[in-house]
Design brief:
Elements lengths: L12 H16 L1 H7 L6 H14 L5 E5 L6 H16 L5 E5 L2 H17 L1 H4 L12 E3 L5 E6 L9 E7 L5 H5 L1 H15 L3 E11 L7 H10 L6 E4 L26 H11 L2 H8 L29 E7 L10 E8 L5 E9 L3 H15 L3 E3 L11 H10 L10
Parallel strand pairs: 1-6, 1-7, 2-4, 2-5, 5-6, 8-11
Antiparallel strand pairs: 3-4, 8-9, 9-10
Length: 401
């Protein structure tokens, strides 16, 4: 039976006219193509789509998009965009790259199947021998080739390169050797496959300040190729590209419950992972003030009388969310070695963490206590005021024997 996607010519003039109008509509708008495939783009998807359409129109040649895990960036960039682009430019070729060939071929299979299922609507058709997920052709001459990072790419020239999720794991992200190999492959193998005037799209979650995106940004800042950067954190920060207020969550407005997922991740992920993977702000493991190699474990605490004991707190005022309140007690010996003696961290109301502060300081007999900038924002509940009154004495220096 003939239909809009059968690719046959035995149709009525009215049906042909309707099909032509639909085809023109889908070629003009990536959003309409996404809706035709059953997807309703959220606000961040529409921002991504705008960048992809600008690439398709030739307005930009380098696009980098950074979004948190699970935000459906691959669905729109690696699955829905290539059929749309190949319908507009059926003689052009795409090189699709991911961290493994297996994942790249997974995207390639879904792109191929979309074209096969909607060839009549798209106006393009697969070549008869295009069965492989990783490399196939259109009858119009366009080609699609999928490859993993590090793979040899021989005999293929691309009009565009789509890199999606080039980093496999935290271990790879933290490996200087792997990062160097990825960069060398990107420069010497991948980019050399690009035809003159070709485009490159990078879609990823940030892992490390020196990951592929980090090196591209550094090169750009030093006068290299100019990239259009779209970076969306899970939790909005000042100057958000979507116009969100600081603290508002990404994709928190439908039944998918992605915003709730992000809240759970913030509560459970280590700070370094949250900053990099979710906020797109990777930070070095050795910070500006403390370096990882300075820290050592110890099995027995030095005699208390040999230490000067200090306490410090960083206060927050929201329970079950927001920032953490942290209390720490350290001891410093005569050689200026610092020992961690006590540590507490929690997302609690002020009456809870003040009680913890009292117990900790009483037990450790701190010489002095440092407070964060929000020390006076305890709230107005009676328990808080009573606890604060009792805590006030803790902030006077006390001598130790």
């Amino acid at each position: 039976m003939n239909g809009p996607d059968s690719g046959t010519s035995d149709i009525s003039p009215e049906f042909a006219a309707d099909l032509l109008l639909k085809r023109r509509s889908l070629r003009r708008s990536l959003i309409e193509w996404c809706r035709y495939c059953g997807f309703e783009p959220a606000a961040h998807h529409r921002l991504l789509i705008d960048g992809l359409e600008r690439v398709a129109r030739g307005e930009i040649k380098r696009l980098a998009v950074f979004m948190p895990p699970g935000s459906a960036k691959s669905t729109y960039a690696s699955i829905l965009f290539p059929p749309y682009l190949m319908a507009r430019q059926p003689s052009r070729s795409i090189l699709a790259v991911s961290h493994t060939t297996e994942l790249a071929e997974k995207w390639g299979r879904r792109v191929r199947n979309l074209i096969a299922d909607h060839s009549g609507t798209l106006g393009v058709r697969l070549a008869e021998d295009s069965y492989a997920a990783g490399r196939w052709e259109l009858v119009n001459g366009g080609e699609y080739h999928a490859a993993g990072v590090g793979a040899a790419i021989v005999g293929f020239r691309a009009h565009g390169i789509l890199i999606d999720d080039p980093i496999r794991s935290r271990e790879d992200a933290d490996s200087q050797h792997v990062r160097d190999k990825t960069w060398d492959w990107y420069k010497s193998e991948l980019l050399t496959r690009l035809t003159p005037g070709g485009w490159v799209i990078l879609i990823q979650t940030r892992w490390h300040e020196d990951d592929l995106a980090g090196r591209i940004i550094t090169e750009m800042e030093c006068g290299g190729e100019r990239w259009e950067i779209v970076s969306l954190p899970a939790e909005a920060e000042p100057g958000d590209l979507l116009g969100r207020k600081p603290g508002e969550w990404l994709w928190d407005d439908d039944e998918y419950r992605y915003g709730q997922f992000l809240r759970e991740q913030k509560a459970s992920q280590p700070p370094r992972n949250w900053s990099a993977l979710y906020q797109q702000r990777p930070a070095p493991e050795s910070g500006d003030y403390f370096k990882a190699e300075w820290f050592r474990t110890y099995t027995s605490e030095p005699p208390r009388h040999s230490l000067h004991v200090y306490g410090a707190s960083d206060y927050a005022v929201t329970s079950q969310g927001g920032d953490y309140t942290v209390h720490v007690v350290v001891g410093v010996d005569r050689k200026n070695n610092m020992y961690l003696l006590d540590l507490w961290r929690g997302q609690t109301s002020s009456d809870v963490w003040v009680e913890v502060l009292l117990r900790s300081r009483a037990k450790m007999e701190a010489v002095d206590v440092g407070r964060g900038a929000r020390a006076n924002r305890f709230g107005n509940r009676p328990a808080s005021r009573e606890a604060c009154t009792r805590a006030a004495g803790l902030h006077r220096p006390r001598a130790v024997c």
